Amino acid sequence: NKETKDLLTKNYMGAGKWKLESKVKGANDQLFINPAATNDGITVDVEYKTSQYPVAIKSTLTPTAVKKTTVTYTDKAYGKFEVATDCKFDAPEFSYETIFKGVSITEKITKKASEALVAYAPIPALTVGAAINYAFESKAIKSTLGARYSCKECGIVANATTNDFKAFTAGAIYNVDVKGTKGQVATQVDYSKAAGAKIAFGGETGCQFIKGNSLRFRVDTDKKFTAAYIAKLKTWTAALTIHQNLKFGATFTLQ
Which residues pair with 207 in a beta bridge? Predict the structure, then answer.
């Protein structure tokens, strides 16, 4: 459930951490350079997509090396092919995505493992899926089963997944309207025999004073409370995070 995960994790920054980034997108046949700076250093994403061929190239650079380069080829009939590697070719990745007779199929192969995923929607509101991961070195096989339910009329999206029937995750996000102010609330429960149950609850609401801005909060079973104020400017998004220890984090994104 991407919606639940985004509401509980996105736009939050760690205590004492900051990030300044660019995520500019545009027309084909143009080179886009998106730098990012954090406490830990600087990276630069260089992207180029042609209009003549369905090919896109993206490289992530650091001051000392080419961290990762990804080449994507998309064919309307056969699906999307993607190859990624670092500059030393130590960690190549191959992936393929397609839809065949309503079934979404994804295959990914890395140096360490191979993973296959299938998903199908028997009815418009329900999607079910399964994934198998095979580790080459240990020969271990791991499985994942999941289901996602989305009801536009009632404003709810719910999901449930299990990994090898040893770990379970269930989550839901719900649209709310309080006196004309729209918002969302979300909760997620993670359970395993080793770690027990962990619950996270969060929400987002629009700012009463500045239209377009919003306030998010999150609390979990470890009694950790986090809040974020998200300001939408003309071409920038600024997010200020405050933690329960009164330490701050911040992100500034150019879009």
Answer: none
